[in-house]
Amino acid sequence: MQPTTSDLFKPASFIGGEWITSNTTFAVTNKATGELLADVADASQAHMTQAVQAAKSAFASWAALPAPNRAQLLRKWYELMIAKRDELAELLTLEQGKPLAEAKGEITYGAGYIEWFAEEARRLDGDIIPANSTGQRIHVTRHPVGVVGAITPWNFPNAMITRKAAAALAAGCTFVVKPARETPLSALALAALAKEAGIPAGVINVVTGTDSKALGKVLTESPDVAKFSFTGSTRVGKLLAADCTSTMKRVSMELGGNAPFVVFDDADIDAAVNGAMLAKFRNAGQTCVCANRFLIHQDVEEQFTARLTAKITELKMGNGMDSDTTIGPLITPNAAENVHKLVTAAIEQGALLRVGGNWTAGNFYPPTLLTGVSPDMDIVSEEIFGPVVTIMTFSDDAEAAVLANATEYGLASYFYSQNIGRIHRFADALQFGMVGINEGAISNPAAPFGGVKESGYGREGSKYGLDDYSFIQYRCLGGI
Ligand code: SIN
After folding, report:
1. Burial of 428 (0-12, 13-18, 19+ CB in 10 A)
2. Predicted local distance difference test score (pLDDT) of residue 7
3. How much is the pTM?
4. What's the pLDDT at 272?
5. How far is the CA of 102 from the centre of ligand 1 (A)?
6. CA 97 – CA 320 distance, rounded (Å)
7. CA dihedral (396, 401, 402, 404) positive or negative
8. CATH classification number, 13-255+455-476, choose in 1.10.1240.10, 3.30.365.10, 3.40.605.10, 3.10.180.10
9. Average pLDDT per run of 10 along the chain, which is 480 residues long?
10. Do domains 13-255+455-476 and 259-447 have the same CATH topology?
11. Is 259-447 a domain of CATH 3.40.309.10?
12. Cβ–Cβ under 8 Å, residues 54 and 20
């Protein structure tokens, strides 16, 4: 498929309900073949300011729309996404690289946030608190914060947008997003469907461009943007959060992770291996919740490693559009080179290469497994963002907890055990925002996604996902 044949192919920014071209364009490539997919409008700061003003103008009427009406429009958007799932998935695979089956899964996942928040829009309620005197009443009401600015990553070009946009719109906010330059087509296709669903002009705006710093500055520094939301690296998140302080806007940050995957000696090893495949190889290891460090009890390490190795060798790396591909390319050759540097350094420091590791150039990195890894290696302290399993061992629960928490990150974590007492104790000991217990796939629109420590703050999805997009007003009614 060439994306140009799709009705959802819109290579321009979407501002105030119109497709806005620019004087210059940037190339979006097929990540499996390197071929040109599209020349997309390269927006300027003036375009971003125009988008913020469009969102500002649309805010009052969108916020005033009764919640069931907002819910209905979101529902329509969701239904269109489901109806166009195959087309959206093909665009996504072409520009991002993940296998088509995974891309379809992402569309269902992304649409799930819209469905979820369409329902939650009707439940944005307040409180009545007993007052101190009979002549007073205390009411607490909830209100949309205003214009939301967002910057989203290339690893989930659909779902990382919907989980911010749907929450914002459900709460009555309007929305401006700058998608990653590597994957703007999925974002623009979402905007086309929002327009078709009847979401009014200016409520959703998508600004595509290459000058991330300049475009981001408008979102972080404009007094007209009330809330800023970012998904990406901790390094960039810190810079963006600092830029937001001049206007004291609300900020939520979904940043890097370094997830431990712990297997106790009482675990169901087959279940742990299946969970490890999901937690490690989804999107070729390019997710913030991917297992980054495998901590395996010394008595089951051999068994776990042998079974995991067998599963890894069944993976078929290739073009995501081919039906037998189960693992696609990394986003760029540079990303593969960074993964390879970590692998090479670990081997030099004493790790044993058991599978893969044979990379010379390009963005396809082979699924790799290393044993004999130790906590002082860079591959343990850094987010790998690639298909590499690193295995360390432990001998008791206390050691496992210390090793698992030995990171500045606190996003996802996973562990496998059949002992209910240990399950509670170990979950209590983990300093992470999300814990998969006997489960390798934890992402779900109904659940609060987010981290602690340097993985950021704020939650996306679930009923908590609306908190960042609304403020509470306390009303003291006297003289009653
Ligand atoms: C991420 O990698 O940031 C998100 C992954 C997910 O939603 O599961």
Report:
1. exposed
2. 86
3. 0.97
4. 98
5. 13
6. 6
7. positive
8. 3.40.605.10
9. 80 98 98 97 98 98 98 98 98 98 98 98 96 97 98 98 98 98 98 98 98 98 98 98 98 98 98 98 98 98 98 98 98 98 98 98 98 98 98 98 98 98 98 98 98 98 97 97
10. no
11. yes
12. no
Please work out whether the CB of residue 231 comes within 6 Å of at least one atom of ligand 1.
yes
CA distance 151 to 128: 36
What is residue 48's predicted lDDT score, i.e. its pLDDT? 98
CA of 283 to the centre of ligand 1 (A): 10
Are 360 and 333 in contact by the 8 Å Cβ rule? The answer is: no
Mention every residue, 6+ apart, whose C-beta is less than 8 A from residue 210: 26, 42, 181
Please report the beta strands in 272-330, taking only residues with DSSP state E, as ranges in sequence order. Answer: 291-297
Pocket mutation for ligand 1, best pick of 98, 107, 160 (most atoms within 8 Å of C-beta): 160
The residue nearest atom 3 of ligand 1, judged by CA position, is: 288
**Which of 90, 120, 254, 301 is labelled catalytic?**
254
Residue 315: strand, helix, or coil? coil
Return the CA Rg of the chain: 23
Residue in the block written with tokens 């007094």: 223
What contacts 24+ positions apart, CB below 8 Å, involve 124-131?
124/67, 124/170, 124/171, 124/172, 124/466, 124/470, 126/472, 131/476
The CA–CA distances, whole Å, from 396 to 22, 275, 341, 412, 414 equal: 60, 22, 32, 21, 16
Q: Identity (one letter) of the amino acid at 39?
A: D
- Give the number of other CB atoms < 10 A from CB of residue 302: 12
Task: Please check whether residue 249 is in contact with residue 226, taking contact to mean a CB–CB distance below 8 angstroms.
Answer: yes
Confidence (pLDDT) at 5: 76
Shortest-distance atom of ligand 1 to CA 443: 8
Q: Does the Cβ of 289 fall within 6 Å of ligand 1?
A: yes
The ranges assigned to domains in the chain are 13-255+455-476, 259-447
Pocket test for ligand 1, best of 155, 280, 442 (most atoms within 8 A of CB): 155
Counting from 1 in the atom list of ligand 1, the atom nearest the Cα of 282 is 8
288 catalytic? Reply is yes
